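Cross-check.
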Amino acid sequence: KRLGRTTIIEFSKELMKKEEELKISQLALKKKEEQLVINEKDFTRKVSGFNGDQQKVLGCIDASDKKQSKRVEHMVEVISGMKPVSAAQVLSVQDADISVKILGLLEPKKVSKIFNLMDKEISARLQKQYMTMKK
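Predicted model, tokenized:
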């Protein structure tokens, strides 16, 4: 009786309004959760796809490295069968990195003879690269 009929009606309306707002909030939260699950699945799919692509790239790099290693080994066989003068000429015009890899796999006596027969500038550059490779 104290509150009065109007106050109870207003209180009821306010409760119903709050209840409706709560339902709307719960629906919005449910939609966000569903979207989050969808995003998580999408992210997981993309990560697994990326990992697959990464493995393919790494496989290609490994295959390329193996092929290059085989070519260098072949060149080591060829160069080791040459006379030092011819080997010096061939290695002088090669890419420096490849020449250093080849020299790194040759016998030390042969390498010293080859360095002695090369142009001084080329020999110095290759020796510097050769020494840093050995570290």
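Residues 72 and 101 are 7 Å apart (CA to CA). The mean pLDDT is 89. Passed to J.P. for a second look.
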